Every structure is written in structure tokens, then in C-alpha cells.
Amino acid sequence: MTTLRKAVVVGGNRIPFARANGAYAMTSNQDMLTAALDGLVARYGLQDERIGEVAAGAVLKHSRDFNLTREAVLGSALSPETPAYDVQQACATGLETVLGLCDKIKLGRIDSGVAGGVDSASDAPIVVSEGLRHALLELARAKTAQQKLKALSKIRPRDVAPVAPGTNEPRTGLSMGEHQALTTAQWNISREAQDELALSSHRNLAEAYERGFFDDLMTPYRGLTRDANMRPDTSMEKLGSLKTVFGRQLGDEATMTAGNSTPLTDGASTVLLASEEWAESRDLPILAEVVDGEAAAVDFVHGKDGLLMAPVFAVPRLLGRLGLTFEDIDYFEIHEAFAATVLCHLAAWEDEEFCRERLGLDGAFGKVDRAKLNVNGSSLAAGHPFAATGGRIVAVLAKQLHERGSVGGRPARGLISVCAAGGLGVAAVLEAR
Amino acid sequence: MSAPARGLETVELPEMPSLARLYVAAARDAAKKLVGKATARASLPNARHHVVGIRPDLIKMTEYQTLLGEAKRDIAPAGYVHTLAFPAAMSVMGREDFPLPLLGMVHLSNHVEYRVPIFYGDLLDVTAWAEKLEGHRSGTQVALVVEVQHAGNDDVAWRGVSTYLAKGVYLPGTDKPGLNGQRDEFRPPLPTAMWSLDSETGRDYAAVSGDFNPIHLSSISARALGMRRSIAHGMYTASRALAEVGSQKGDTFTWDVTFEAPVFLPARVCLNIKDAVDGGGAWEESEFVGWNPSSGRRHFRGTVTRL
To answer: Are residues A202 and A146 in the same domain?
Structure first.
């Protein structure tokens, strides 16, 4: 096999994440992505620089934003000669932009790249109903006055109501929370365990802010300097007092609350990637190397696996290919779509029967040391603007690995996994530089 | 043509009858019976109804596929063939010599064998007759058989058997109710999907299927026939479950459904679909069941099986 050159993380920049209908209620995806991008440009001196390629995306996207990333580049301080493209892979969008650009860097097609993602749950694309849409399309096709009248006559009162985007899975009609509630029940994850995970997410994020960890990872925006969802003073009592919101219709004891599920959030993130030569020639830092990545998908439609369980399959495949086990990982960044999602993943990797029958392994894959899990907080505390989460995690992990340096004579190593709608999951391994 | 239909006299229909007209005639008939004294008859018409030159229409098929969530393939969905062909069976039920009242009949179960794919635009012949007039614990049941053939081809491409119950009608000489009254206790499994059915569901399905039975159209028309509210068509729920079994079922299969508690609209219906594979890992069967998440009552259950 040809030896590929390395792709490294130079740094990252994001705007603080806001709760939906909060500080960013009046800003669009393009506005937020441009703000995050401009912060990155300022931090690494990239004004008027022609970057190899910028890749980003949004999950909830207006049809007019068909070229969202390119438009954000044109509105940014980067050279207008910087090419860009959009990626959309539900909540894995951000991590996939990183992996795709790193592959291009490794192959020598580009020397530098900016990966990113943005989402707004506030400025959501509301569309007209299917009935109205079909009538309007027929009207556009109509040639005679009579045909036009006929098209208009098909519009019924109920067609006039606008349609907001839902979070329901198209093939099951169940929301993501309801899907997770089913998996939570299957894996017997307790309310207390979920609340504990949520609590450490808030505490870890708050501690990271306290020690200034985010100072060079974030650009204040619209009055926000920290993630608006973070509750440094939350407690098991407070989390325990919240009402359950998912799984109440499903016949099992509900355990999932607004406290142990991610809220709807607005925000954007970016990551600067490069070849070692490109970074060195510009005297830029190198935080970590992006070693490898793996995508997986599960057959959730008739319940063979849970909707958000794909990372359980992606991670062992990825580590297996690299000849690694959980013992070789110093930091685990497992995206907290719901506290229960993370706990289901951990439970599955520890389950001998599941690992043998579903993952084709000899026994349990392994146990994640909880002291190494989401050490700087994750989505439960920071919030989860869908496509922006991957970029947030890559930047945080790269910086953490760089700070740690080496472990027992080898570079510190981190694992990322992100679950996504449609039964998708993407994982990646990074190493300290 | 199946053996039981051979002894029957064939009645050629000039075109596929309109269900709307059949319902109006049935209502008139029901009114007459309130005045006069109906003679109870314990035998089925000695006739099969035959219609030639039926053709699935692309636009109507597409509307059906959109509503039921079927992939928009060029092959007619099994449930769409039912909507095309069943009016022939309804015309048998609307005959003077049919022993049960057409209005108010309850759809108990439905069996379909889809043996040869039917494409839109294919020219089809439809034959329908009634058989198996039997006692049921709460009335009398009858099976309506419909067979669809490609024009000029003796092979049955699609065969449906719809079993209906005339509640409270007991005919002299029909069998006494057997063990069909026994129902197993239902414990809802974890759902794999959930449907949110709005109050338009009955009217929407009527528009694509032509089945304008008043119990499905509005609360007022349903109440006129003794229902609390309008109910979803059984075949809507069965056809949607069939669509959700997905592409694994292939083009030819057997599709069975048994209807239980009616779905009063609007409604949330929980669905569980369980797939079974053979030794080689290939799809063999999917079992489906639908229930009310609040009451836990089962609405329907069935299977889709490899032919």
C-alpha cells in the first residue's frame, strides 16, 4: 500500500451554542457558520488565504441554502477563490466533513481544509403542505385559464397550514427520543444512571470553562460567551425532579427527561485541517493527527437494532482495523444525543452475548473507563446543534490530546463516536501531536 | 379459476361497478327492509361476477402509493389491486339474492396471494363470488373471493379472500358458532413504529380506494350507522402495514390480516413488525400487529410471507 501523508488538526473555532429561540433566534445557518469561520480565520491568520477546500453542512436546511458553505465562505474573510461544498449526514455531518477533508489531504489533493457544521432549530425551514405544494406545482404547469382554475380549486383549507420540520424518523413515525426510549428499555438503563451522566457532562464542561480550556476554541457571538444550556450548579436532586418526556406512550417505565436528553440548540463550529507541511510552513500549531474513521449503519426499521446504536458497530470495526482496544484509548468522546444513548453503547460493548452474536467478536468488546469519558463535557451540557457537534468534538479532543502529549511513551490517543438519524454512526481515532 | 367457482353461473358486468352507487342502493334496500318483511335466505347467490378490460391507472396508483407510503414503483401494490377489483365482489353482495345486508358488514379478515406482478397499464380480468356462508358467535360470516388475471392468461395473478360478518344476523341452517370466539390475551410488544392518523384518514383513503362507506367518512355519517366516531378503513391499516414491511417482501407474496378493535379517528396506532429469515439469511416472513397505545387493545394483526 502507498504510504499516505498525514492529516492534522491545527485548531478549531466555534461560537457558543444557544438554546433554540434564544440568543441566535434571529440569525440564520449562514450567519452562524460565517461567524464561526471568521473567528477561525482571525485566530490562525487566514485572511485572504485560499484554503484547499471548505466542507460543512446543516441538518435542518432551507432549500435556498443549496450552497450554504460556499455562501458562508464568500461572506467570510477567506479568499473568495476558496472552493467549498455541503455535506449532509444527519448528526454525523460534522465528523464526516472532517474525515472527508482529511482523506483529501492524505491523498495530496488538497493541503489545507476547513471542516464545519451549523444548525438552527430556531430559524427552521417551514414549508407549505404537500397538498398546497402539489396544487401550486400544477398551477405552474397549467397553460390555460381553465387549467389554472382547476389547479387552484384543489387547494383545501387544511392545505394552507404551514409545516415545520419534525424530528420523526420517516420510516417509523417515532421521534428520536421515542426510539431511544425503546433502546433504553431494552438495555435496562436506569433513570439514575442517565442523570449521573448528565450531571458529569455539566460539571466537566463547567470545569473546562473555569480553567480557560475554551479560550482559544470559541468566538463570542450575539452576547453569548459560554454555552447557554450549561448548568454548572445542577444536581442529582434537580435532575431527578424533572418529568419524563420520552417513552411514556410505549408501555414501559419512562426514564428520559429534558435533563438527560439534549435540548434543541443553535450554533456552528469549524476545524482547521492541514498537511504537516502546510501547517509548519505557516508556523501554525499541530494539535493532533486524524488517524482513521469508520461509518456504520443499523437496520432499525423493524427494531433489529436501536436507531442510535450504529456507533456500537463502527467503533469495534475501526479499532480492529487499527489493531487497538479500549486499553489503548486515553479519551473517549461519545456524543451525548441522550445520556441513555451513551449508556446503551457502553452496555452493548460490555455484553458478551451481544458482542458475539451481533458484532462477531469472541466475547465482550470492552469496558470504557468512565474517568476517560467526555472529560470536557459533551452535548448534554453544551447543547447539540446537529451538524455542529462533530466539529465541536474534534476541536476539543485535538486540544486535549495535545495538552496531554504522550502516554507511556506513545502519543495520547482519543476515540470519537457520533450517532445519527437514519440508523447512522461515524467514529474516528485521533492521536496527540 | 378456483374449483368452488366452477359450478357458478357467470354474470358479465359491462364495467366495474361504482362502490358509491352500490352503497346508495344498499341504503335504499336497507330502508325497504325496515318497511317490508325480509325473507331470510340461507344460501349464497349461484353466480360469479366477471368484468374484463380493467386497467390500473398511473395517476390513481401514484395517489394510492403516496397515501400508503408505498415506494412509487411501476408494479401495482397488492392493496391497490384490491381497491381496483373489490367492487366486483361488492356487486355480488349487492344482489337481490345475497342473504346478508351489505351496509354495516364488518371486515373480519383478509387474505391476498400476489402471484404474478401487475404493472400499471396491464389489461386485467376480474372474477368475484361469495362462498363459505357460516355461523359466527355474533352473526353470520361470508367470504368474498376475487381473482385477477392478465387478459388472455389463465393464471391467477392476484387472489383475495375477504371475510365479512353481518352482525346480529342469524340465518336458518348456517353452522352454529364454533371456537372462533376464543381470543388470545394480547400483551403489546415494544413498537417499531407509530402512526398519527388524523380525522381525514378515512376520507383520504376513500379518495384513493373508491370505498366511500359512510362509517369511514365523518363522525356524523358514522353515527348514522351506529358508530361513535368515524373509523379507519381496515384495508388502510393493513395496506400501510404491508408498505412498511418494505422492499424485502419482493414482488410476490401472501398477505394476511385479521381485524380486531376498530381504529376510531383521530388515532395514534402503535405498530410492531417482526422479520423472520430462513437458514440462508433470506427474508421469509414478517409478522405485524397494530394496537392502541392508550388502551392496549389490538386493532389488527397479520403476516406477509414469501410465496
So the answer is: no
Q: What is the mean pLDDT of residues B109-130?
A: 97
- Under an 8 A CB cutoff, do B193 and A172 touch? yes
Confidence class of residue B158 from pLDDT cuts 50, 70 and 90?
very high
Instruction: Tell me the CA distances in angstroms from A189 to A155, A165, A252, A343, one per residue in order.
Output: 48, 30, 12, 7
The pTM assigned to this predicted structure is 0.89
For A241-287, the pLDDT digits (tens) are 999 999 876 655 799 999 999 999 999 999 999 999 999 999 999 99
A:B CB pairs within 8 Å: 49
CB contact under 8 A, B190 and A302: no
Nearest to A174 among B188, B193, B296 (CB): B193
Q: Considering its fold, how many domains does chain A have in total?
A: 2
CB < 8 Å to A182, chain B: 190-191
Contact B244 A174 (CB under 8 A): no
Q: Radius of gyration (Cα) for chain B, nearest Å?
A: 19
Catalytic annotation on A384?
yes
Domain that holds residue A370: 176-210+292-432
Domains and CATH numbers, chain B: 1-182 (3.10.129.10), 183-307 (3.10.129.10)
**Confidence band of A374 (pLDDT split at 50, 70, 90):** very high
A206, A136: one domain:
no
Contact A147, A159 (CB under 8 A): no
B134 touches chain A (CB under 8 A): no
Check: CB of residue A178 under 8 Å from CB of residue A250: yes
Number of alpha carbons in the 13 Å side-chain half-sphere of residue A426: 24
Coil, strand or helix: which one is B190?
coil
Q: Which residue has the cell 393464471?
A: B155
Question: What's the complex ipTM?
Answer: 0.81
**A91 has catalytic annotation:** yes
**For A247-360, where are the alpha helices, taking DSSP H only?**
276-281, 310-322, 339-350, 352-357
Contact B194 A171 (CB under 8 A): no
Find the angle CA(A23)-CA(A333)-CA(A301) to the nearest 5 degrees: 85
